[in-house]
Each structure stands twice: as C-alpha cells, then as structure tokens.
Design brief:
Layout lengths: L7 E6 L7 H14 L4 E6 L1 H8 L4 H17 L6 E5 L5 H12 L2 H5 L2 H9 L8 H4 L1 H11 L4 E4 L4 H18 L7 E4 L27 H8 L23 H7 L2 H12 L5 H28 L1 H30 L2
Parallel strand pairs: 1-2, 2-3, 4-5
Helix pairs in contact: 2-3, 3-13, 3-14, 4-8, 4-14, 8-9, 10-13, 11-13, 13-14
Tryptophan binds next to strand 1, helix 8 and strand 4.
Length: about 325
C-alpha cells in the first residue's frame, strides 16, 4: 500500500520506569504487530511523565533511554515505525495550548483518573493545572499525527472517549481537520504483579523485561496462588490464581489448558506450574536480553534512532500545525 495512505496508529508510554511484563502483554506485543500494517508513531511521552514526576524529574532523562532501549530490543523496528520523544517535538505543546482554550473545565474535572491519581499518588502533589490537563496533552499527541487508531489498555478508555469529544469540538469550531481517534483495546487478562495486585511500577511488584533469569525465578516462585491449594493434594482454580495470569499472557493455549486441568485435579504442584511459565518467559526474553546488552554497550545507537524518529515526527507535526494555524487564522 502507498505509504501515505496507511492509517495512522499512535500510542505513548510515560518514561517513569523500565518496561515490565505488563507493558509487553498489554501494549508492546500489539505495537509490534501493528507496525507491519499501519503508519505507526510510538512516543516516549516526557511531558506526561513530568506531570506526575516533576519533583523527581532527573529520573525522566534516564528512563527515556531505558524505554527506548527496551522497545528496540523487544522488536519495535525503526524502519517500520517512528519512535520518538514527545518533548523533542514542540508542536505537541502548541496544540495542547490551543486545545486547552476550547475545553470546558467540567470535561476535565469529571475524568475519573484525575481523582483516582490524587488518592493513589499520595507521595506526589498532582493537584496541578498541568495534571488536570493530562488528557488534553494526550489528545494533542494523537491528533497531531492525525492518529486514527490508538492501541491502549482499558485504563485509557476514558481518556480516549474524551479525546474523541475534544476532536469533535475542535472540528466543529474550526473545520474538519482531524479524524476522530478510535481506541483499539488490547485484550489481555490483567497481569498480576508479585504481590497479587495489578502489575504496576507504582506498586513495586513488577517483573521487568531486563530482569535476569535468576531475578525472574526469585520473583515468580514465591508468588501468591489460589488459596485453596494449601497442600499439594488440594485441587485449585487457576482463574483465582494470581500466578496463572502470567500463563494466560505468555503460555500457549494448549499447554495452558493442560496446566489448568492439572491445577483443578491437583495433578500438578504450584512450583512446577510456576516453573513452566518461568521457562517460557526466559525463552521469550533471551533474544531481548542479547539485543538489550548491545544497546546498553552502544548507547549512541539508541540516541541516533531517537534522533531520526524525532525528525520524522517533527515533519508530520509541523505540517499539521500549519494547517491548524491557517484554520485559526493566525
Ligand atoms: N496516558 C497514557 C498512559 O498513561 C500515555 C499516553 C500519552 C498515550 N499520550 C498518549 C497513550 C497518546 C496513547 C496515545 O498510558
Ligand atoms: Fe496457580 Fe498453578 Fe498453583 Fe494452580 S497450580 S494454584 S494455577 S500456581
């Protein structure tokens, strides 16, 4: 297909930590597939990270590198997609500013994540103007590239609904410039972290892509299992087992069914069951670790790829902003 006619995919990740298995199952695997079919922009969204990490901002710089190296090592290919750093393309800020002028305040005040984050991030002061505008910046990210498809998890569904609303309002006021972005929900079972809660950097329960085989073993072996399996002879229910969420994401269906059967009949022990997924992860991650080491030893390779991506992104962003400025008449 003609490169210009391909539909545009946009997604982003905040550089607030290295990539973990939740990112792999929930986003990256899908992004890798999409890069063969669509015109994909994948952004390391510095300013979104800054909105919650401004009091701890020096870490952002390191995580930009970490995230980029993780993405490249897991299979995002700079010849197939554009990998770039949001804060290197200033047009995001300009469009964010313009959008902020047309968004009724209540649209932002009712965003559930705004209130949730206030509670969740107790150690951080996110009661700020910028944080309230988080979904505005996210909308600017997407429509700046005329993004049509946004592969994200369920937790971003509200932001995407809002992005559509904002886009409609902009188009109504200034002419039809932007396509309405559509969410492409990534269907993955919620991955449990090592403590049984959702795997998330902020809970400190994550298994990182860069973890060594030893670390992966040490994290998964003590994971909580179905409470019914107090003894080896007690049958269990995999659907109630945090560890089994890893099987759901990473073990193929046939083998997984056998394991589930083994669990329900007490035919398999929990340690044996966990070892299966541990070995599977090591198999999946071995090529990643090799590439990741090359990038760690040659950081310029990563920085050059980012520079190239920034340039590609800038070109598209500048073109869009020209159109926007004409539509606004200044
Ligand atoms: N808000 C997203 C998250 O926390 C990150 C993000 C920023 C994003 N801009 C985006 C995702 C644009 C998709 C499209 O995961
Ligand atoms: Fe979980 Fe596996 Fe143990 Fe069943 S056998 S409770 S699925 S760890």
């Amino acid at each position: 297909m003609d490169e210009e006619k391909k539909r545009v995919v946009f997604s982003g990740l905040r550089p607030t930590g290295a990539c973990h298995l939740g990112h792999l199952a929930g986003a990256l695997r899908n992004w890798i597939k999409l890069q063969d079919q669509y015109r994909c922009f994948y952004s390391i969204v510095t300013w979104h990270a800054f909105s919650s990490e401004y009091q701890n901002h020096p870490v952002i710089r390191d995580y930009i590198f970490e995230v980029a190296a993780d993405w490249l090592s897991i299979g995002l290919d700079p010849d197939k997609c554009t990998i770039f750093v949001q804060s290197e393309v200033k047009e995001h800020a300009e469009l964010h500013l313009l959008l902020s002028m047309i968004i009724p305040l209540p649209w932002l005040q009712r965003v559930p994540t705004f209130k949730e984050m206030q509670k969740e991030l107790k150690d951080k002061d996110v009661n700020t103007y910028g944080f309230l505008g988080y979904p505005v910046l996210q909308t600017a990210d997407i429509i700046l590239y005329k993004g049509e498809i946004v592969p994200v998890g369920e937790d971003q569904a509200y932001h995407l609904e809002l992005a559509r609303e904002i886009t409609r309002r902009f188009n109504r006021l200034f002419g039809n410039i932007f396509p309405e972005p559509q969410i492409l929900l990534t269907e993955v079972p919620k991955l449990a972290g090592t403590d049984g809660r959702k795997m998330s950097k902020s809970f400190g329960n994550s298994i990182y892509l860069k973890d060594s085989p030893e670390v992966i073993r040490a994290k998964i072996q003590p994971m909580k299992t179905d409470v019914r399996r107090k003894r080896r002879t007690d049958p269990g229910e995999p659907e109630d087992c945090p560890a089994f969420t890893l099987h759901k994401a990473f073990v193929d269906e046939e083998q997984r069914e056998k394991i589930a059967q083994g669990c329900r009949t007490a035919g398999i022990g929990c340690l044996e069951c966990k070892n299966i997924v541990i070995e599977k992860l090591i198999q999946i991650l071995t090529p990643f670790w090799e590439k990741r080491k090359t990038f760690a030893d040659n950081p310029d390779m990563v920085l050059d790829i980012l520079e190239r991506g920034n340039t590609e992104a800038r070109e598209v962003a500048q073109k869009t902003m020209k159109e926007v400025r004409i539509a606004l008449g200044f």
